Amino acid sequence: MLQNKHIVLGICGGIACYKAVDLVSKLQQAGAVVDVIMTESADEFVRPLTFSTMSHRPVYSDLWEPSGQAAETHIRLAEEAELLAIVPATANTIAKLAHGFTDNMLTTVALATQAPLLLAPAMYKDMYTHPATQANLSLLRQRGAYIVEPAVGRLASGTIGTGRLPDTELLLGAIRLTLGRHSGDLVGRRVVVTAGGTQEPIDPVRYVGNHSSGKMGYAIATEARDRGADVVLITGPVSLPAPYGVDLIRIETASQMRDAVMASVNDADVLVMSAAVADFRPAHPSPQKIKKHVGEPSIIASSGQQKQATTEGHAAGDGFSIHLVRNADILADLATMQIGQQRRNREGRLQPLIRVGFAAETENVIANARDKLVRKQLDLLVANDVMRSDSGFGADTNKVYFFHPDETVEDLPVMPKTGVAAAIWDRVLSLLT
């Protein structure tokens, strides 16, 4: 996403500018071309050599240098930039940008460029909340600038409040989002992605669940965001940070997952069901913790409503029985209900909801995946063997097959889950267009 992207990074004179060193380093490592422009006051906090070392490029600051080349340089930077990001953005520079002042290299480039503008304000809390600063930020938003809200925490003054520069990972997410919404191939699309596993309660402290980490679903949602889509991410309990800029809906059970999906897909272009949704749930969860002396639990799975052989919640000989009933099949229900069939795409044509499913298998991967593709009337099915050490739950890589309705099967090599996510959206994009 950032490979060969030309990013002009403005550095203003606040104590938080030391954090921008790490941002420049991470952008450069991701393959971006980073030109740094420093204000004169930023030079008092971090020397230009530091940023030059991290970016592997010259640092610009003096609009009035004696050779006269700065006049040509600020136009070149303005025209070459694919994004102008100002990190940190001080109250002073925000005011200049809002009112069109051009008294230094950074503000001159800002006024001359057609690239999207991203601001990450960082300052003392009362400076940030001051009506003048808020009015200036509001004016810049109206003109299309994207504002990364400052974090709440301990400030350089020692006080606690709003004004901290967010961490590098969040800033990188904001940069990717802004670039995607400006030139991504999914701009104007709304997509729904499910991730993680569900937890079906046995009692208030125990549940029936699975090993899903959510990594694949989060990678899919992040890739869609980076391509400019409006993303709804419906997630079961995971230990992953929320991707910046997506609409996050947290759920626990399969029933909650179904409700969230049904409420989200009516105006969506695409649904990617990568979550590991539990097929069964305890029919009658205990309202209180089941005590150990009741016995060790055993599981009785049932797709029907037949009567339990034992009384749930009580000992049955040397064991304990939990009666399981089948959860709703979300993708199958969608196929029956035909939700999204009357949505108009960007070209004005009626287009159905594109539905992508996943099949995590332990045996007979090809046969089981083909059956699922047909049964659920999917546009694309992604299947993998979760018994492999380099694929499936918890791994950072995945070995998948793509199954298409025309019986075409693509056998992809082992790759990072971010690469699988990109491949999925490449296939979905062809279905959309």
Automatic annotation (TrEMBL):
What is the catalytic activity of this protein?
A: N-[(R)-4-phosphopantothenoyl]-L-cysteine + H(+) = (R)-4'-phosphopantetheine + CO2; (R)-4'-phosphopantothenate + L-cysteine + CTP = N-[(R)-4-phosphopantothenoyl]-L-cysteine + CMP + diphosphate + H(+)
Q: Name one GO molecular function term.
A: phosphopantothenate--cysteine ligase activity
**Region Phosphopantothenoylcysteine decarboxylase: start and end of each range?**
1-190
Which Gene Ontology cellular-component terms appear in the entry?
A: phosphopantothenoylcysteine decarboxylase complex
What Pfam families does the record point to? Answer: DFP, Flavoprotein
| UniProt cofactor(s) | FMN; Mg(2+)
Which Gene Ontology terms describe the biological processes this protein takes part in? coenzyme A biosynthetic process; pantothenate catabolic process
Domain annotation Flavoprotein: ranges:
5-144
Q: Which EC numbers characterise this protein's activity in its record?
A: 4.1.1.36, 6.3.2.5
Q: Which UniProt keywords apply?
A: Decarboxylase, Flavoprotein, FMN, Ligase, Lyase, Magnesium, Metal-binding, Multifunctional enzyme
Please give the residue ranges the record annotates as the region Phosphopantothenate--cysteine ligase: 191-433
Check the record and name the PROSITE patterns matching this protein.
Answer: PROKAR_LIPOPROTEIN
Which pathway does it serve? Cofactor biosynthesis; coenzyme A biosynthesis; CoA from (R)-pantothenate: step 2/5; Cofactor biosynthesis; coenzyme A biosynthesis; CoA from (R)-pantothenate: step 3/5
This protein's record includes keyword Lyase: yes
Renumbered to this chain, the signal peptide range is none
The residue ranges of the DNA/pantothenate metabolism flavoprotein C-terminal domain are: 186-297, 318-430
Ligand binding (CTP)? 279, 289, 358, 372, 376
> What binding details are noted for the cofactor?
Binds 1 FMN per subunit.
Q: Does the record carry Transit peptide as a key word?
A: no
- Similarity comment: In the C-terminal section; belongs to the PPC synthetase family.
The entry's function note states: Catalyzes two sequential steps in the biosynthesis of coenzyme A. In the first step cysteine is conjugated to 4'-phosphopantothenate to form 4-phosphopantothenoylcysteine. In the second step the latter compound is decarboxylated to form 4'-phosphopantotheine. Catalyzes two steps in the biosynthesis of coenzyme A. In the first step cysteine is conjugated to 4'-phosphopantothenate to form 4-phosphopantothenoylcysteine, in the latter compound is decarboxylated to form 4'-phosphopantotheine.
Q: Which PANTHER family match?
A: HOMO-OLIGOMERIC FLAVIN CONTAINING CYS DECARBOXYLASE FAMILY, PHOSPHOPANTOTHENOYLCYSTEINE DECARBOXYLASE
Q: Output this protein's name.
A: Coenzyme A biosynthesis bifunctional protein CoaBC
